[in-house]
Design brief:
By secondary structure, the chain is of the alpha+beta class. The chain contains 10 helices and 8 strands. Helix 2 packs across helix 3, helix 3 packs across helix 8 and helix 4 packs across helix 7.
Length: 269
């Protein structure tokens, strides 16, 4: 979509946009994916930093996805009511409020959102991804780091790899296999034959019953434990993943194969 992320277009054609912010993450995904798939083959669990960086990059893709505007606003909408404190940063932010966007009506019509939603989404992207102060992480990275480091829940990351089957890709980039309460679980396509699941699990609602108070107290005092589970050819999980991708995508699912497991697909050519 032309100029989707341009929040001020000058008469001379120059644009203020988020491309520089996005570029900080785009180049990381491929090498991180290779490292994680290599760890799967070696059964190497010492990849917590890579898993966090990939999660961050995937969440950036979710936030910038035009088909996820409503969900982004439902999740991070409060950020649209804040603004940067530093004058030099606010001067750029103000261009979202007052900027010239001749493409806005077309974009809103194309993805089915209002002018107010589009403006709110641009403000959320700015507050989450733009550096607001020297020497500090952007707000999204800080929030995700707190989520990763919290000792109040269990973090289990499943890396699923398939020998022959291909994994679907949602046009929204992220899906969830379960309701997001009390647990919070995110699924992402990893590569043609793999997907990854980040599960933040409530200690009081685990399938085997709540974690005993004494054990939980020890877990909350000690360092954060990231459990990494490597799975190969788990067809039950692939079936769930594919069903949720087809249910939760905006309009289109993608696959590098012609016959994805458990899915009746209509090919576009």
């Amino acid at each position: 979509m032309l100029d989707l992320y341009s929040f001020d277009v000058s008469d001379d054609g120059s644009r203020a946009n988020f491309e520089e912010a996005f570029s900080r993450y785009e180049g990381r995904i491929e090498p991180l994916t290779r490292r994680i798939l290599g760890a799967h083959g070696a059964r190497d669990a010492n990849i917590s930093q890579e898993l966090f960086e990939l999660f961050t990059a995937k969440m950036v893709n979710f936030i910038r996805n035009p088909y996820s505007v409503t969900k982004v606003l439902n999740t991070f909408g409060a950020m649209a009511t804040h603004h940067p404190a530093r004058p030099e940063v606010y001067a750029l932010y103000e261009r979202i409020l007052t900027g010239r966007r001749p493409h806005q009506a077309h974009i809103c019509g194309e993805i089915g959102i209002s002018d107010e939603q589009y403006g709110g989404w641009l403000r959320v992207i700015f507050m989450l991804l733009m550096p607001l102060a020297d020497g500090f992480p952007v707000m999204l990275e800080d929030a995700l780091a707190q989520l990763f480091e919290s000792r109040e829940d269990a973090l289990v990351i499943h890396v699923h790899v398939y020998t022959d089957e291909r994994c679907l890709l949602s046009d929204r980039g992220v899906t969830s296999p379960i309701e997001q309460n009390p647990h919070t679980v995110f699924d992402f396509n990893l590569a043609a034959h793999s997907f990854i699941r980040y599960a933040f699990l409530d200690y009081d609602a685990l399938p085997g019953g709540p974690v005993p108070a004494g054990i939980r107290a020890g877990l909350e005092r000690g360092p954060r434990v990231v459990q990494v589970a490597y799975q190969t050819d788990d067809m039950v999980s692939l079936d769930v993943f594919h069903r949720r991708v087809t249910e939760q995508s905006y309009r289109t699912v993608y696959c590098s194969g012609r016959a994805p497991y458990g899915v009746n697909a209509i090919s576009e050519g």
